[in-house]
Amino acid sequence: MSVAWSQSTWKVLLIAVYFAKIVVTKTAHGDGENQSPFRLPDAISPIHYQLTLLPVIEENPRLCGHVWIDVTVNSPTNAIVLHGQVLPVESVVYADSEVIDNEVSRMLVERMCFSGVLDALDSLSDDKPKSRDDKDIAQSVHLDEDSEQMIIILKEELIVGAFYRIGILYLAEINDGDNIGFFRVQKKQEDNNCCRQRWIGSTQLEATHARKVFPCFDEPAFKATIELTLGHDSKLRAISNMPSNSSTSLKTVDDWVWTTFEKTPVMSTYLLACVISELEYLETSYLSINGRNITIRLWTEKQKFSQLDLAYRLVPTIMKTLEDYFGIPYTLP
């Protein structure tokens, strides 16, 4: 009798979970017949990402992160749907866009990565003003593994034309073997007649793998600017789409630094890239059609510099030829 009751109870629970998932999906995507559950609704558009990443690529690899996403509202909705194949630890939604101190984001990520999730949450409750709690309109967060979406249910309907700020503290994986998302590869390097193993951390976000690295609107049409801060061992170099503009030491561990990069142009999420390594570069340049001197850096292992000879000679010529042909100067730094 007890076995039969247990089986029926499980059936009821499974049915309840199934219908709860339907309700969440309906709430998030609306009732539009033509809306695919695998595509994001267009009720919200991203404007800017302030992304903080701390990848640990050697012992016990892990990726800790925090992202602020500034969005604008195109149509009424009481849910925010974005992509996310990460584990959200804490999520907030604010109905304003006041300046957020990036140092707070860095400290949260540091504590979560090196001291644990509970320590980060304790820090969050200590550092967050009570006035911010009152403004947080996030009610709950749901992950849909099938559609790779993160759904934030809200306490109130968003106002069309208004600006909001989404904040998400999260954990993610560093991939071994599959060179997608944020991944690591092991290289053997010869130093002083001795070989040693070293790790390189890198990203491959095309076509739909940005969602493995940070919660985002991971479809090409949802373009926004991105400002990246990357934590890494001070012995390693960090490079990304844009030049770095500052470097500060981590507060919780020695010999690690935060490297912050300039804001990108408006672009799709899959175009973001970063590398943490001991790579070095050869530098050359050419004169743009607008009179600006454009610096080109070719990155590789130092012992392979000789293999860059062709690229070193041809890339400046190719860039200049393309500018002359299209009449458009290269605009990135």
UniProtKB/TrEMBL annotation:
Transmembrane segments: none annotated. Residues 1-25 form the signal peptide. This is Aminopeptidase N-like N-terminal domain-containing protein. GO terms for cellular component: cytoplasm; extracellular space; membrane. Keywords: Signal. Coiled coil: none annotated. Pfam families: Peptidase_M1_N. Residues 46-271 form the Aminopeptidase N-like N-terminal domain. One of its GO terms (biological process) is peptide catabolic process. It comes from the Eukaryota. SUPFAM superfamilies: Leukotriene A4 hydrolase N-terminal domain. The keyword Signal applies. GO terms for molecular function: metalloaminopeptidase activity; peptide binding; zinc ion binding. InterPro entries: Aminopeptidase_N-like_N, Aminopeptidase_N-like_N_sf, Peptidase_M1, Peptidase_M1_aminopeptidases.
